[in-house]
Amino acid sequence: MFPERIEFVQRKFGPLLSQDDEAIFFNPETPSDCLSLSLDKLVAYQTLFPVVEQLEAAGIKCVQSISQQKFNLAIISIPNSKKLARHLIYLATKAAPEGLIIVDGEKSNGIESIIRDLKKQTKISNVISKAHGKTAWFETPAELEMYKDIPLKIEDGFKTRAGVFSADGIDPASKLLAQLLPGDLTGVGADLGGGWGYLSVKALEKDSISKLHFIEADFTAINLAKNNLNDQRVKFYWCDALTWKAPKLLDFIIMNPPFHYLGRAIPRLGADFIKVASRNLKKSGILWLVANRHLPYEDAIQRHFSSFSELSGSKKFKVIRAENPINF
Ligand SMILES: C[S@@+](CC[C@H](N)C(=O)[O-])C[C@H]1O[C@@H](n2cnc3c(N)ncnc32)[C@H](O)[C@@H]1O
Description:
Blueprint: H1 2-13, E1 22-26, H2 31-35, E2 41-45, H3 49-57, E3 61-63, E4 73-77, H4 82-95, E5 100-106, H5 111-121, E6 124-130, E7 133-139, E8 152-153, E9 159-160, H6 172-180, E10 187-192, H7 198-203, E11 209-216, H8 219-229, E12 234-238, E13 250-255, E14 260-261, E15 264-265, H9 268-280, E16 281-292, H10 298-304, E17 305-311, E18 317-325
Parallel strand pairs: 1-2, 1-4, 2-3, 4-5, 10-11, 10-13, 11-12, 13-16
Antiparallel strand pairs: 5-7, 6-7, 8-9, 14-15, 16-18, 17-18
S-adenosylmethionine (SAM) binds next to α7 and β11.
């Protein structure tokens, strides 16, 4: 745990941080990660909407990009995407060009290999190992241009970036659902958890769709989707799908719901998305959903829809059409 490690570092090595440091914290997962530092001038860099909501509710200012403002301290809590972890370290060296950079993470997120590589690129002041994780620190300036992430062009010209869902290519489950969507998908709909936009692009090939609400919590993904989609019929919402309410009840919803949150598997999330779908659909509205076959969504579907059927899926994935939402 980050608070435990940073407290240990300060005790063992003397205070690395002082209360009036101008600090930026990349990817804190909880308010307590930030508050444990007792810094008066701390800004959090966080792109996941539900986490931003929690941080801001605790009085922590959040940003989604780095600006001209310079800091003398940057902390990175590494995510489990190695590419994104490196990009955040690169951003930290730009945000604190003459200061201290602290890199922290759990072993399960790959902190050991991140530090191993960092040692090859720059002079690390120290590393400690504690509470299933590691903390390393170094001083800037440091030349870490090679860690900078640049958009990746994948099949069909789509652009993705490090850390977003299916960053290296089109997700096979979404591809399957796109193939099985009916030709006459009509009216106003939504894509819940739209990622970088693949499913919506495919759905919008149907001219009978008049409007599509695109809901996504990841700021990086939604910005990619704005470019990948580029369609006047789409309205983008950077928000938490679990609390989103359609302006008017919808004709259809498409989704490949998440079952991971902050890198951890949370199968309940998919069931929560099903509930959100039912309460945002008209009585005649239809939900089109794809999921890994082993995920137990049928109970949630039965609770929130009067009828459903499985379309011809595959060994790995199931595509479900659910109608008559119950949850009005
Ligand atoms: C399985 S991916 C599907 C992405 C996209 N529809 C596709 O087919 O490639 C699920 C998406 O839901 C997003 N997500 C996770 N939790 C969310 C939430 N609470 N609100 C909105 N989006 C969320 C994730 O960031 C991810 O992009």
